[in-house]
Amino acid sequence: MNQPSSQWRVAIYLVLLLLVTIIANLLAARLADSPVAALILMTSPALAALLASLVTRRSLKDIGWRVTPVKWLGLGWILPILYAVPAYALVWLTGLGGIPNPTFLERARFTLNMPDASNNLLIVAAFFYITIISLLPSILLSLGEEIGWRGFLVPELAKWLGLRNAAWLSGVIWAAWHLPGILSGKYGAADTPLLYRLACFTLMVIASGMIMACLRIKSGSIIPVAIMHATHNGVIQIFLDRITFDTGKTTYFTGEFGAVLLPILLVIAWYVWNQMGKMESQAV
Fold first, then answer.
1. 214, 163 contact by CB (below 8 A)
2. What is the 8-class DSSP label of residue 252?
3. d(Cα 184, Cα 7) in Å, to the nearest integer?
4. So what's the pLDDT on residue 97?
5. What distance lies between CA 239 and its chain's CA centroid?
6. Which residues in the chain show pLDDT less than 70?
7. So what's the pLDDT on residue 29?
8. CA-to-CA dists, residue 4 to 8, 19, 59, 166, 236, angstroms
9. By Cβ atoms counted within 10 A, which residue in 30, 72, 209, 253 is the most buried?
10. Is the pTM of this model over 0.85?
């Protein structure tokens, strides 16, 4: 029996993703601010991918579960730090945002049980706690998305349209999947214009999605991209955003809905785009 084409698999996945996402959003709305609501939403791409794999007879091994060399795991961890920390350092140095946020320090002292630690030691300890110790549960949550985006969608798009087209198109789909949460005000800062938030977020997601797509294909595994996704969320949302205090217009620059991450991310995405072009040329 002939296997379904990648084009057919992508179509089936997108239909199932739409249906599962609608159901997940309806359930999340009923659960209000419960943590279960976020869990349901984050696992909807994975559920759609598993269903699409079953319907189209795609082996679950093709998701990319293989153990990959440490260099790829390390790259997945270091990349978000490389593009996020310098960006926030610029925000702090220019006064566009302040550091450290007293509320962050107070909570960190309690969480880490370090009541007498100096601010500098506390900040370092919090950074490593967030990006290393608490990374495993974050990776498990990130897999809820990565099984779908980079486990199913990117490889099938790459077979159909080529790697570079798969990279940017999967990023567009990933960004669009977030739209209900953004438009409803449940996801992202609400004190900047909506069009500005959408523009910054969309560029950020497409650029990071291109990087993750290349990492997935080069490593042959979704584990490095799950690490990158989890580290991105941890270092930006839980550490850098919270350690920064608002000096007036800070939200225009920080976070996933601000502009400061974009320059470095776009440079890395441009480099990755060129590398993917070389990979495609060698494959011909």
1. yes
2. G
3. 32
4. 97
5. 15
6. 1, 189-190, 284
7. 79
8. 6, 21, 12, 18, 40
9. 209
10. yes
- Rounded Cα–Cα distance for residues 179 and 175 (Å): 7
In Å, what is the CA distance from 215 to each residue of 65, 72, 93, 204, 219?
A: 14, 8, 32, 17, 6
DSSP sequence for 90-138: HHHHHTSEES--HHHHHHHHHHHT-TT--HHHHHHHHHHIIIIITHHHH
Q: What is the pLDDT of residue 186?
A: 75
The dihedrals phi and psi of 98, each to the nearest 5 degrees, come to -105, 160
* Spatial CA neighbour of 81 closest among 119, 130, 35: 130
Please list the residues that pair with 97 across neighbouring strands.
246
251 DSSP 8-state letter: G
Closest among 45, 60, 59 to 13, alpha carbons compared:
45
pLDDT for residue 184: 78
Q: Which residue has the tokens 């502009």?
A: 259
Q: What is the pLDDT of residue 7?
A: 96
Measured CA angle at 103 (ends 99, 105), to 5 deg: 70
